[in-house]
Each structure stands twice: as structure tokens, then as C-alpha cells.
Specification:
CATH architecture of chain B: Roll
CATH class of chain B: Alpha Beta
Number of domains of chain B: 1
Structural class of chain A: alpha/beta
Distance between the termini of chain B: 14 Å
CATH superfamily of chain B: CBS-domain
Mean pLDDT of chain A: 93
Strand content of chain B: 15-25%
Number of helices of chain B: 6
Largest sheet of chain B: 3 strands, mixed
Distance between the termini of chain A: 34 Å
Strand order of the largest sheet of chain B: 1-2-3
Number of strands of chain A: 16
Number of helices of chain A: 10
Oligomer: heterodimer
Low-confidence stretches of chain A: none
Radius of gyration of chain B: 17 Å
Order of helices and strands of chain B: HEHEEHHEHEEH
Structural class of chain B: alpha/beta
Radius of gyration of chain A: 19 Å
């Protein structure tokens, strides 16, 4: 059983607009009308859960939810066939707003709320439930930001518990949560480089920086480090070598980039979980991520399209 | 159709040492009328509903009354609820609960829900671990 943990889930509210007027440009009162909109459960782990469920992979989504928005998240996940096991908290689950302007969909405007403050009692309640779930876990995916009030050490603690229970651990996060999570030597790490292109204090901007930082993390015990380098290319570093995964896509043709990175990681885990070789898993993950970015929908899971797209992905050992 | 095809795949539950105050918070937040109680291996060991908590707050002679007019006011119940709010759910949970497995027929689940007049029925796997619940609305949704 695959378990995803999203400590700070969200509802993603996506607006498609013809033109986004900015206050600093108009210097006047203005109204931007959305051409269409979409509301769906979001957050890195939640996106992965939905993608896996659409592929027919049983999985359980865990984390903290609260208030009206929390109910929307849980309901959406259940409708997608995901098993839910969230701890209910006092605050309100966050809403993240994404604006996609016609012709500029590849550079979405994203506004993320911080999320509800979580109390130590709520964390303790979660840990008890998480420990019980580990009895059934083969993979644990720890993904996304930590909500206010949660200690930056959470991913390290959860990763250590999961490893002790015999599960493979994946961490997709940034900053302190990722840095400390690395101390537990997870199986896969995918740094979120949108805000802080850094892993363990090492920069992740150029190809050589990514490779150096990845090799360092692998030397410290991480199995596979996967880093997005440029939008249509990723670099994977393991003890066996370094691979560059390239997609022939034009970023200007992206229609909805939201969640594409999570689909990529979900695709890799899905294939490894099936016993596929890493190279094939990377190819599938990249194809799935690209298909998602090129589709209007937040998460594209058309298996035929993904498999067809796999042929266009090139993998070079560096 | 099998239970697995109609159940709500939700594992919201609590342990037997959770307090009544905490349980009320979970029931209220999750919007559910009752909750399975599980052990450290996620095996279902009991069941507690809003009704069980209300009953625990009523005077022992309540069942013998035809109306509630003999109870002076809600303060009495409120005080009792405050008294028991720190008690573990174990003290008030139903131990002779009924469960179904994922592989049982939907008709079997429906019969239990109707005959026992319960809103949610816990669903367990072959190891007795919680995997979901069948709710009355699940049955109606799938019958329509």
C-alpha cells in the first residue's frame, strides 16, 4: 500500500483569464473576469494520490484538514477513489489561487495561503494514526510544505518511522523540512526548487551544481535524487550514475503546469512499485508530467497518451 | 455488488484512550455521527456514537420515563457531560459491534444497517483492520 502524507493540503482554485490587469499598471479600479474556473483538492501528496488512484493504484492520503475547505479536500479525494485518513484540526485548510492568463499559461500566477496552525496535540494525534498505517505501508510519500506550528523535523521523524517499518520513503519538499528529512536517508528525494533552489545548503541552479549536490546527498545515504533542471528536463543522481531526462516539449505550449511535477514523481513511484527499472520509471514519470502540463486538466492520467509520449523522452547517462 | 464497491474509503477512527471531549471534536469536525474504535494494529475493537454519549449523560432512570419532562433542564445533562468529558471512550463504547468485510455482498450490509438501525457500518479486511465504512447514503447512492 502506498501512503501519501500532505501536512498542508489545499483546495486549488484555478482561474483562466483572457488578460490579467495588474493594479500597478492600471492605477485604477478594475475587474478581471475569469473565462472559466476549476476547484479541486491539491497539495503535493494529494495530487500524487489522485494520479495514482486514476491509474488504479490503491493508496491512502494522510495529513491535517480542517473546516469547510477540509471537507472539500476529503470529498474530492474520495470521489477520486483515494482512501482518506486525515486528522481534523481546529483551523481552516488553505485555498491556493492559480491564475492562467491566455497565451502565458506556462507562467502561472500562484498565491498560496500559509495554512492552519497545527497544535502539538494534533501532531501527536497524527503520529499515532500514522504509526498504525505503517503496518500496511510499502511506500510512504512525504510531500509539500509544513503548516505553521509543525516542527521542521517532521519529515525526518516520519521518514525514520517508515523506514523502520520496512517502507520505502520519498520526500518532495523544500527548505528545512527537506534538509532535515535527508538525515533519515530516504529512498527518493525530489527538492521543490520553486522558492529555494537549495539542498543541504548547496545551490541547485546549474547542471553541475545539481549533480554535485545530488552526489553529496547520495553519499549521505539517499537512494535517488531527482531535480528539475529547466522545465522540460530533469536530472537523476544515484550511486550508479547520473542521468538527464529530456522531453521535446515547448514550454510555451503548456496549458496547465499545476501539479505536473507531482504527476512526474507519482509516475516514477508507480513504475518502481511495479518493479520496473529506474530508467523506465524516469521515462514514464517525465512523460506523465509533460502530458499533464500540456493538458488543460490539472492532472492528466490518460495511460495511452502517457505511454505514447514515453517514446519521445530521451534519457542520457552523463 | 460487493461491499468494497459501495463503501466510503475513509479511515477516520480513534483509539480507546481518546477522551470524550476529543471524540466530540472529531465527530463534529468530520461531520460523522459515530466512530470505529481501533487498536494499535488498526483492528476494530469497538464503536461509539453520539447516541452513546448522550445516553451516558442521561439519568439512569431515563429509560423508565415516558417523556423527558421529569428531567428539570439541560443543565443536568450539561454538567454530566462536563464530568465525563475527560473519560476515555473505552468506558462508553459498544464492544459487541457489527462489522462487514470488503468481500461481503452489499445486500448483507444493507440488511444489517436496516435491521440494527445504524447509520454507518465499519468495513474490515481479512485481518480485521478498518478499510472503510458503509453509510446509508452509500447504499442509496448506488441503488439509484
Amino acid at each position: 500500500m502506498i501512503i501519501t502524507v500532505t501536512p498542508n493540503p489545499a483546495v486549488d482554485k484555478i482561474y483562466w483569464v483572457d488578460q490579467l490587469k495588474m493594479a500597478k499598471e492600471t492605477q485604477d479600479e478594475f475587474l478581471t473576469r475569469a473565462r472559466k474556473s476549476d476547484t479541486s483538492a491539491g497539495g503535493k501528496g494529494v495530487n500524487i494520490s489522485i494520479f495514482l488512484s486514476r491509474l488504479g493504484v490503491e493508496n491512502v492520503a494522510m495529513g491535517f484538514v480542517g473546516g469547510y475547505v477540509g471537507h472539500v479536500v476529503v470529498r474530492d479525494l474520495r470521489d477520486e477513489g483515494v482512501t482518506t485518513n486525515f486528522v481534523w484540526v481546529n483551523g481552516e485548510t488553505r485555498t491556493n489561487v492559480i491564475v492562467l492568463e491566455r497565451g502565458h499559461e506556462y507562467v502561472p500566477i500562484m498565491i498560496d495561503e500559509p495554512g492552519p496552525a497545527i497544535t502539538p496535540e494534533e501532531v501527536a494525534r497524527f503520529l499515532r494514526r500514522y504509526k498504525r498505517m505503517l503496518n500496511r505501508a510499502t511506500w510512504v510519500i512525504l510531500a509539500g510544505s509544513l503548516p505553521p506550528g509543525v516542527d521542521g523535523d517532521l519529515y525526518r521523524v516520519l521518514a525514520s518511522m517508515a523506514k523502520e517499518a520496512g517502507a520505502r520513503v520519498v520526500i518532495s519538499a523544500a527548505g528545512d523540512a527537506l534538509g532535515r528529512g535527508l538525515l533519515a536517508a530516504p529512498y527518493i528525494v525530489k527538492p521543490d526548487i520553486r522558492e529555494t533552489p537549495v539542498i543541504n545548503g548547496l545551490p541547485l541552479s546549474t547542471r553541475s551544481e545539481i549533480i554535485d549536490a545530488g552526489k553529496r546527498a547520495v553519499a549521505d545515504g539517499t537512494g535517488i535524487v531527482i531535480v528539475s533542471h529547466e522545465v522540460t528536463g530533469d536530472i537523476a543522481i544515484t550511486a550508479d550514475g547520473v542521468w538527464e531526462i529530456l522531453a521535446p516539449a515547448k514550454t510555451t505550449e503548456f496549458k496547465n503546469f499545476v501539479g505536473a511535477d507531482d504527476v512526474l514523481l507519482g509516475g516514477i513511484v508507480h513504475m518502481l512499485n511495479k518493479g520496473e527499472r529506474l530508467e523506465n520509471a524516469l521515462r514514464f514519470g517525465m512523460a506523465a508530467g509533460m502530458m499533464s502540463a500540456e493538458s488543460d486538466k490539472k492532472i492528466c492520467s490518460d495511460l495511452d497518451q502517457i505511454e505514447k509520449h514515453m517514446e519521445t523522452i530521451s534519457i542520457n547517462k552523463l | 455488488m460487493k461491499v468494497r464497491d459501495i463503501m466510503t474509503k475513509d479511515l477516520t477512527s480513534c483509539e480507546k484512550d481518546v477522551s470524550i471531549r476529543e471524540l466530540i471534536f472529531i465527530l463534529d469536525s468530520a461531520g460523522v455521527p459515530n466512530m470505529p474504535i481501533v487498536d494499535e494494529e488498526d483492528k476494530v475493537i469497538g464503536f461509539i456514537s453520539e447516541k452513546d454519549i448522550i445516553r451516558a449523560c442521561l439519568p439512569g432512570y431515563f429509560d423508565m420515563l415516558h417523556t423527558a419532562s421529569f428531567i428539570p433542564d439541560m443543565n443536568q445533562i450539561s454538567k454530566k457531560l462536563e464530568q465525563i468529558s475527560g473519560d476515555p471512550v473505552e468506558k462508553y463504547m459498544q464492544r459487541d459491534m457489527i462489522v462487514v468485510t470488503e468481500d461481503d455482498d452489499d445486500l448483507q450490509a444493507a440488511e444489517i444497517i436496516i435491521r440494527k438501525n445504524i447509520k454507518n457500518l465499519p468495513v474490515v479486511d481479512k485481518y480485521g483492520r478498518l478499510v472503510g465504512q458503509v453509510k446509508r447514503i452509500d447504499l442509496l447512492r448506488h441503488l439509484l
